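ok new one. same drill as before - structure tokens go in, u give me an amino acid for every spot. 120 of them this time. try not to just spam alanines like last time pls lmao
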């Protein structure tokens, strides 16, 4: 059940990342950091989708672990863009909360999945 929630949240988050990227490139004329944010922010959902059809439980965990790394990287780029004044506190607080929520959800799913493997 939680995996469906993380799937939809990661898709919605990717859409927000794309909109943020469009804003940063058109309004702020920032192209380098925003491209990194776009790449890692949209990769989260793609990796979650890949994990759905993993070849094994270990493959599922591995793909979600990579999604977690991408979410962590996205958090870094968002913080860097905010702290270098490319977008304000209001925009930042809304999107960083979503990113941190995805991180928490992925950690929970990974821990649960690892626990299920060791119980067998």
């Amino acid at each position: 059940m939680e995996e469906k929630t993380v799937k939809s949240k990661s898709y919605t988050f990717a859409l927000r990342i794309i909109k943020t990227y469009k804003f940063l490139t058109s309004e702020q004329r920032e192209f380098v950091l925003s491209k990194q944010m776009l790449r890692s922010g949209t990769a989260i959902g793609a990796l979650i989708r890949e994990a759905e059809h993993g070849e094994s439980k270990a493959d599922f965990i591995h793909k979600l672990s990579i999604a977690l790394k991408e979410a962590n990287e996205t958090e870094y780029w968002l913080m860097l863009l905010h702290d270098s004044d490319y977008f304000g506190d209001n925009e930042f607080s809304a999107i960083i909360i979503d990113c941190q929520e995805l991180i928490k959800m992925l950690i929970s799913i990974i821990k649960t999945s690892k626990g299920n493997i060791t119980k067998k």
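The radius of gyration is 15 Å. and btw Residues 89-119 form the longest helix (31 residues).
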